[in-house]
Design brief:
With about 400 residues, the protein is an alpha/beta fold. The chain contains 16 helices and 14 strands.
């Protein structure tokens, strides 16, 4: 199955062209300013259905069109593959059933239903959903579209690399950084890059909370590991495919593992400094670069998707503001008399702090008789501004501490 024949990827590109877009490759100024890197981001978050998965799904359905039209299609997915399969089936008038883990984010279930597919929740992880989907397909003769271990799917994903090398700015690129779950995306891209740009280094990135691919890559043995909650749910694979891992070992410069905190930070950086809404799996390459794992100067980061649940995005952005010291909680001891709280809010206003909320803690033994404590959440310009605010409160006789 691997490496792919280059002609197969080129043929897939012709097939998927009416149903996909050539996504932009944008210069990411922030990484130049912060790390001195000439970094470009391949924005698959702008792809139809919000991720690269539509490419592989379309290539597979078209290659097996007679079976798909007669019996229908079944797939297993945590979200993005589901939406890709559902979309192409809707456009071609094919019935689709998507088996999804019970832990799938609500927005991805909703979006799959919106594309017209039938959804079935089964299992807590993708591996369990996939086994159930394969059983359904064998019983009814349906076309099963594997999320990564299928030559047509791989060829569709490899079309991303064809687009990359056609960009003028790709000349001189030293490294391409790509998310890794099951390995379909990166394997398709490797096949093209090794054939046409063999000197370019390729890095894969996964998350520590879904360590099976990383462990198998570095230990050289088939392993199953327990999954934890991860922002990068799109790469949460319990047991990767041995053939794909062997292919990655022969072709990757390295497979990198990043922490959840790094993924959250990368999502926030992409949103604030790139104006890009990126999901957890899509943010993995940026997380690896921000953590210093990629030393090359001219690089491409493949941002694979943007289907992040809105509440998750809100929490991540809030966390980012706290990390930067732009949202701060202060514990202030005040007089428990009329005007005590007002005196604090006046100082906060004078120092240009924006008060978000105040908690009045009367039932406490930490304060003395005639005193009380308030917890006040404020928005500031950053850590230095916060220090100025604390100094000003202290100068007016208030006992102040930070709540972390």
């Amino acid at each position: 199955m691997l490496p792919l024949n280059l002609e197969a990827v080129q043929a897939a590109r012709s097939v998927i062209a009416p149903y996909t877009i050539k996504t932009p490759l944008l210069f990411f100024d922030y990484l130049k300013e912060r790390l001195g890197k000439q970094a470009y981001v391949k924005c698959e978050l702008f792809q139809k259905t919000g991720s690269f998965k539509i490419r592989g799904a379309t290539a597979c359905v078209h290659h097996n069109l007679a079976q798909a039209k007669q019996f229908g299609v079944v797939a297993a997915s945590a979200g993005n593959h589901a939406q890709g399969v559902a979309a192409i089936c809707r456009w071609l008038g094919i019935k689709a059933t998507i088996v999804m883990p019970t832990t799938t984010p609500p927005n991805k279930i909703h979006n799959t239903l919106e594309w017209g597919a039938k959804t079935e929740l089964f299992g807590t992880i993708l591996d369990e959903s996939k086994a159930h989907a394969e059983q359904l397909a064998s019983q009814k003769g349906q076309l099963f579209i594997h999320p990564y271990k299928d030559p047509d799917v791989l060829a569709g994903q490899g079309t991303i690399a064809l687009e990359l090398i056609e960009e003028d700015c790709f000349d001189g690129v030293e490294a391409v950084v790509i998310p890794v779950g099951g390995g379909g995306l990166i394997s398709g891209c490797i096949s093209v890059l090794r054939a046409l740009k063999p000197k370019v280094k390729i890095y894969g990135v996964t998350t520590k909370n879904a360590p099976a691919t990383f462990e198998m890559f570095h230990r050289g043995a088939v392993v199953q590991t327990e999954l934890k909650y991860t922002l990068a749910d799109g790469v949460a694979v319990k047991q990767p495919d041995a053939e794909i891992i062997d292919f990655l070992k022969k072709n990757l410069e390295d497979l990198i593992q990043v922490r959840e905190e790094s993924i959250a930070h990368a999502i926030a950086v992409a949103a604030e400094h790139g104006k890009l809404v990126v999901e957890g799996a899509g943010a993995l390459p940026l997380a690896a670069v921000l953590d210093g794992f990629v030393r090359h100067t001219k690089i491409v980061l493949l941002l694979s998707g943007g289907n992040i649940d809105v509440p998750v995005l809100s929490n991540v952005l809030q966390r980012g503001l706290v990390e930067q010291g732009r949202i701060v909680r202060l514990l202030v001891r005040i007089s428990d008399r009329p005007g005590g709280l007002n005196s604090v809010t006046q100082i906060l206003a004078q120092t240009q702090a924006n008060i978000l909320q105040v908690f009045h803690q009367r039932a406490t033994l930490h304060a003395g008789v005639g005193e009380t404590e308030i917890e006040v959440d404020i928005e500031t310009r950053g850590k230095e501004h916060t220090k100025d605010i604390v100094r000003e409160l202290s100068a007016h006789g208030f006992q102040v501490s930070r709540v972390t």
